[in-house]
Amino acid sequence: MVPADGNDEPSELLYGLHAVREALRAGVRPIQRLLVLRQDRQFGDVVQRAKEKRIPVQLGPAAAFDRLVPGGKHQGVIAFVAAKAYVALDEILESARARNEPPFLLLLDGVEDPHNLGAVLRTAEAAGVHGICIPERRAVGLTSVVAKVSAGAIDHMPVSRASNLTRCIEDLKKAGIWVYGVEPSAEKIYTETDLTGPLAIVVGGEGEGIRPGVRKECDELLRIPMMGKVESLNVSAAVSVVLFEAVRQRNRKRMAVPTEP
Q: What positions does the domain RNA 2-O ribose methyltransferase substrate binding occupy (predicted)?
């Protein structure tokens, strides 16, 4: 269990032992994570049910509960409800197969700003990306702010949530998907790379970029050439640049007329 990071909004909170217990039992509302005051017997069944459903459980101080739910009616348990349910990675890959298209995925390593995630969702949907994968921890989830900024794209873009992004990349590589990380220090420029096959693009968060362990698992690293004084683009801008280069290449390949031998 880890401390609460405080990224979620009060309007998306479900609190109180009975309310949270019933929401977990019904399984209708997409719960992002659970914040509990203690790990004793009082919270045992709620914590156990959350873990069975692979919902992250976090331990937080009393001050965090009082800040999120003024008035003390939280009873030491708060559920953070997402704006949309997540899907399994296999469902995203199956969707690509059903459309008879090479998989086209986006992986976000630690994007914490909901405005950035919303903008990325909108761009990815416009680019025809089959799905997005985000980490369970240290990253913003599908909140109402994300939904609003996405301008409706959240309803059309499947999003998977991985407990371990490195393992997610390993699974994609086993499925025959080439994984490219977008990294300012990379030697190869993104336009010099064939982006027409089964593809997953990895982009890092606002501060640290792609973490070393995730970067190491990428098949290759690409960079966007920067002509000014800043070293990198905002994450949503970087995603736009690389995804639509892939769109350009894929459209050109699809529209190419075979020549006679």
A: 13-87
Query: SS3 helix, strand, coil % of the chain, rounded to 5?
Result: 40, 20, 40
User: Which residues are bridge partners to 205 per DSSP?
Assistant: 209
Other beta carbons less than 10 A from residue 125's beta carbon:
18
Q: What is the DSSP letter of 68?
A: H
Query: pLDDT for 44-53, tens place per residue?
Result: 899 999 999 8
Q: What percent of the chain has pLDDT over 90?
A: 58
Pair 192, 213: CB distance under 8 Å: no
Instruction: Map tokens 């190491």 to a residue.
Output: 216
pLDDT-derived band of residue 3, with 50, 70 and 90 as boundaries? Answer: very low
- Rounded mean pLDDT of the chain? 89
Cβ proximity of 153 and 121 under 8 Å: yes
* Rounded Cα gap, residues 157 and 131, in angstroms: 6
Which CATH architecture group holds 89-254? Answer: 3-Layer(aba) Sandwich (3.40)
Res 118 pLDDT > 90: yes
Candidate CATH numbers 3.40.190.10, 3.30.1330.30, 1.10.260.40, 3.40.50.2300; the one for domain 10-81: 3.30.1330.30
pLDDT surpassing 70 at residue 11: no
Whole-angstrom Cα distance, residue 133 to residue 108? 6
Q: What residue ranges do the domains of the chain occupy?
A: 10-81, 89-254
Q: 2 is written with which tokens?
A: 């880890």
Other Cβ atoms less than 10 A from the Cβ of 224: the count is 18
Kindly give, in sequence order, each residue whose CB lies less than 8 Å from that of residue 212, ignoring residues fewer than 6 positions away: none
Encoded amino acid at 206, one letter:
E
What does the block give as tokens for 252?
């050109």
